[in-house]
Automatic annotation (TrEMBL), chain A:
HTH arsR-type domain sequence ranges: 1-91
Keywords: DNA-binding
Keyword DNA-binding set for record: yes
Lineage top rank: taxon: Bacteria
Keyword match DNA-binding: yes
NCBIfam families per the UniProt record, alphabetical: HTH_metalloreg (NF033788)
SMART domains according to UniProt: HTH_ARSR (SM00418)
Protein name: DNA-binding transcriptional ArsR family regulator
A Gene Ontology molecular function term of the record: DNA binding
TrEMBL record, chain B:
InterPro entries xrefs: ASHA1/2-like_C, START-like_dom_sf
Sequence ranges assigned to domain Activator of Hsp90 ATPase homologue 1/2-like C-terminal in this UniProt record: 14-139
Protein name: Uncharacterized protein YndB with AHSA1/START domain
Top-level division of the source organism's lineage: Bacteria
Pfam families noted in UniProt: AHSA1
Organism: Mucilaginibacter frigoritolerans
Family: Belongs to the AHA1 family.
Length: 108, 149
């Protein structure tokens, strides 16, 4: 199955995938126990898990006989990177606005 | 972990002056980015800046005015992407308050990829440490620690 790599925002744009992350935030779960929380087929759940795995939101560990899904920070870091980028962006733009407005108020 | 982008500044200018800089395309270009903004509810416009392929950003921000109430509130959608048609959604909101012979300006930028994104961030904050500890415990008891956490 060739999966186009989605960016972090596209990955979490899907409600089922957010639900998976939410469930995993409470505890690590096997693919089977994750699938029990959804109406969709197990292959459909596996597909979402693969998307989350590819984007670095989860890791999969073989523990005993079972495959466990565990939250991983990498995917979240990509989201955070965007927030930080725009945070710095606005900070510098607003400084520029301050200079312009100061010039305007002293001219009066 | 930041859940929202928020800036609050005070400018020694009346709200109307600050408002002009937020809603006049030429004035906006002086501090923000070149754009084709028109202060009309529902108007769609774009900001253009340099592309940054490193972070999958083609340099165009697609916007639509969602709320405009001069000279107090302004909000617009703020969508960006790598240039392949996929866009990340967010919303920029401005609030102006007259205060001490000047204007208090508040900027809130939120809603990246839908409003629930922030819930995930909250969840990460609350659950992350506990989760990591649980995982470490689980891994330590069942494997020989082949993974570095």
């Amino acid at each position: 199955m060739e999966q186009h790599r989605l960016d972090a925002f596209q990955v979490i744009a899907d409600p089922s995938r957010r639900q998976i992350l939410h469930l995993l935030s409470k505890d690590s779960l096997t693919i089977n126990s994750l699938a029990e929380n959804f109406d969709m087929s197990r292959p459909a759940v596996s597909k979402h898990i693969k998307v989350l795995y590819n984007a670095g939101f989860i890791s999969i560990q073989d523990i005993g006989r079972e495959r466990h899904c565990i939250l991983k920070q990498d995917g979240f870091k990509e989201l955070q990177q965007w927030l930080e980028y725009f945070d710095a962006f606005w900070g510098s733009k607003l400084k520029k606005l301050e200079v312009l407005l100061n010039e305007k108020s002293t001219k009066k | 972990m930041a859940k929202i982008i928020q800036h609050q500044l005070f400018y020694p200018n009346p709200p109307q002056d600050v408002w002009d800089y937020l809603t006049n395309a030429e004035l906006m270009a002086q501090w923000l980015m070149p754009n084709d903004f028109i202060p009309v509810l529902g108007h769609e416009f774009q900001f253009k800046t340099k592309a940054m392929p490193d972070i999958d950003f083609d340099g165009i921000i697609y916007c639509k005015i969602l709320e405009i109430d001069p000279p107090q509130t302004l909000s617009y959608s703020w969508k960006f992407g790598p240039g392949d048609g996929t866009l990340t959604d967010s919303v920029v909101s401005w609030t102006l308050n007259e205060k001490d012979n000047g204007t208090e300006l508040q900027l809130i930028h939120r809603g990246f990829a839908g409003s629930e994104t922030m819930t995930i961030f909250t969840m990460m904050d609350e659950g992350w440490l506990k989760n990591i500890q649980k995982i470490l415990k689980l891994l330590n008891t069942t494997t020989n620690g082949t993974t570095q956490a």
